[in-house]
């Protein structure tokens, strides 16, 4: 989920202006009206007042409208944002943000994980256990990077454009990196590559993993646990952002939360104040480290990521992160991909829109009769029919697509990342999460096709201070040390589940 931090606007005064994305009140108002429609608030009167004053809808794909609003219209947008925040939300009972209220709806969260008291150091792991854990985590880091990189050049493109580009270059069903070689110039003109990614993310120019917020945030999560341990608070996340994360490399809900921090607003109000992106995908991209470091403990992973996510997100945006963290923790404890998805569903409110979307994605994948890559297009069409009215970065449609891709591919690495990216919406974020879970299931870097991992050159570019050029092997060792230090004792996990064979019969999908 990457977009430019600023863009050129028309002349303001005597010189060119700077148009900062994701924070302009006149744009936020349009997005908040869409959010109100999704969560059931009656905002019809506010919408009429906005339109009558000359207000425009939110930008469909860009982070900001082309030029600034009239000062009076901008002031009105701010007042209407505050009025929208006061409207009663009929979905609040089924979609709480408070952890105790979530736990009341999810019995799986009520049993705390067994942990060692802080004054008692854990027994050191056996060397074979540590080596195996490090291998699995390196595969997860590599998988996250490869899936993200696959999706970067087509981020923000419509589904039709992704398909047309892939077909034009002989890469449909999607099975490899996108390339400009052989691309019909007419197709390229209709569907230009993502402007920030085309120079670093096509098959012909990949040279290491370029910087992306989908990798910056897992790295921040690693720093968070190294500095504060698993008992960190949301304020620790906020301080870490201010210390290590450039504001210009935040987007959507994270950028609004960052701005709120600088305005003196404290968590959890940072997630709510004039933040129409609070149910978008940003919290999910921070979930991996919380899941990776709690193998076999989905409930613990979900509760841990909640403290991270609530800095910038509420309700379904938080559930998205909890779902992914729990699924990764289950996979790390020996579950197959289907068990991992069930574990993710078990820690989010069953009546929420996100849970319904995950169930819909799983059911759509099971209903597709061929199980092959070409057949997944029909699954995607079904999901776009159901969720295409959402913004392309919203958590709900992207969770449906992620669950469908992992289910349909049966956790296979190439199948998972290619299906996730080929489905559109937030391509790099979906590819990243699919690659993380499928990489963890694969078990080691050697189990991942070299076609995906060799171009990464064991090198990550990042905006996080002091970490540029770090290797994925180093990241895996650091992550494994945290997972061992705070691991759930093995006797509390129960027996590990073996992975299902790739072509085994898939279990029946949960009912929508």
What does this 3D model show about the protein?
With 512 residues, this protein is an all-alpha fold. 51% of the residues lie in helices and 3% in strands. It contains 22 helices and 2 strands. Strands 1-2 form a two-stranded antiparallel ribbon. Strand 1 and strand 2 form a beta hairpin. Helix 5 packs antiparallel against helix 20 and helix 14 runs antiparallel to helix 15. The chain is globular and about 65 Å long. The protein starts with 5 loop residues before the first strand and ends in a 27-residue tail after the last helix. The C terminus is likely disordered.
The quaternary organization reads as single chain
**Strand pairing plus helix content: what structural class?**
mainly alpha
Rg computed from alpha carbons, rounded to a whole number of angstroms: 22 Å
Number of helices: 22
Q: β content, as a range?
A: under 5%
Catalogue the unreliable spans.
7-15, 112-124, 485-512
**Looking at the structure, what is the overall shape?**
globular
Helix content range? 40-55%
Count every beta strand, where a strand is a DSSP E run of 2 or more residues. 2
Instruction: List the strand order in the largest sheet.
Output: 1-2
Q: Helix and strand string, N-terminal first? A: EEHHHHHHHHHHHHHHHHHHHHHH
**Distance N to C terminus:** 28 Å
Mean pLDDT: 90
Largest sheet: 2 strands, antiparallel
């Amino acid at each position: 989920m990457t977009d430019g931090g600023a863009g050129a606007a028309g002349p303001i005064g005597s010189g060119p202006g700077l148009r900062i994305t994701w924070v302009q009140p006149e744009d936020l108002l349009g997005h908040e009206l869409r959010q109100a429609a999704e969560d059931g608030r009656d905002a019809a009167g506010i919408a009429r007042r906005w339109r009558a004053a000359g207000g425009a809808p939110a930008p469909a794909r860009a982070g900001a409208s082309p030029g600034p609003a009239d000062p009076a219209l901008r002031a009105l947008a701010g007042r209407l944002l505050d009025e929208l925040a006061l409207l009663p939300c009929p979905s609040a009972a089924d979609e709480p943000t408070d952890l105790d209220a979530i736990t009341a709806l999810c019995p799986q969260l009520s049993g705390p994980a067994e942990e060692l008291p802080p004054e008692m150091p854990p027994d050191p792991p056996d060397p074979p256990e540590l080596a195996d854990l490090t291998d699995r985590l390196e595969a997860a880091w590599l998988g996250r990077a490869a899936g993200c990189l696959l999706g970067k050049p087509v981020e923000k493109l419509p589904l039709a454009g992704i398909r047309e580009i892939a077909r034009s270059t002989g890469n449909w069903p999607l099975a490899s990196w996108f390339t400009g070689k052989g691309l019909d110039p007419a197709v390229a003109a209709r569907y230009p590559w993502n402007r920030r990614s085309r120079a670093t993310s096509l098959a012909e120019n990949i040279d290491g993993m370029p910087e992306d917020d989908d990798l910056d945030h897992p790295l921040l999560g690693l720093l968070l646990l190294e500095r504060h341990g698993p008992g960190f608070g949301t304020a620790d996340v906020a301080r870490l952002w201010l210390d290590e994360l450039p504001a210009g490399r935040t987007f959507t809900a994270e950028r609004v939360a960052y701005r709120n921090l600088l305005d003196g607003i404290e968590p959890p109000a940072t997630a709510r104040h004039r933040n129409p992106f609070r149910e978008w995908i940003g919290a999910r991209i921070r979930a991996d480290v919380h899941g990776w470091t709690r193998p076999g403990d989905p409930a613990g992973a979900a509760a841990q990521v909640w403290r991270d996510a609530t800095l910038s997100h509420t309700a379904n945006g938080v559930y998205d992160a909890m779902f992914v963290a729990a699924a990764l923790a289950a996979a790390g404890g020996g579950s197959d991909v289907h068990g991992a998805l069930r574990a993710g569903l078990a820690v989010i409110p069953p009546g929420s829109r996100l849970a319904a979307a995950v169930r819909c994605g799983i059911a759509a994948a099971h209903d597709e009769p061929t199980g092959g890559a070409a057949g997944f297009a029909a699954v995607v069409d079904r999901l776009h029919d159901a969720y295409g009215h959402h913004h392309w970065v919203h958590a709900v449609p992207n969770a449906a697509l992620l669950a469908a891709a992992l289910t349909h591919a049966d956790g296979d690495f190439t199948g998972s990342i290619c299906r996730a990216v080929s489905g559109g919406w937030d391509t790099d974020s979906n590819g990243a999460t699919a690659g993380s879970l499928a990489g963890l299931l694969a078990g080691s870097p050697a189990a991942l096709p070299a076609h995906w991992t060799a171009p990464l050159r064991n090198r990550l570019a990042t905006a996080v201070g002091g970490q540029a050029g770090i290797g994925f092997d180093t990241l895996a060792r650091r992550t494994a040390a945290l997972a061992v230090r705070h691991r759930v004792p093995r006797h509390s996990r129960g027996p590990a589940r073996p992975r299902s064979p790739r072509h085994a019969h898939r279990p029946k999908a949960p009912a929508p």
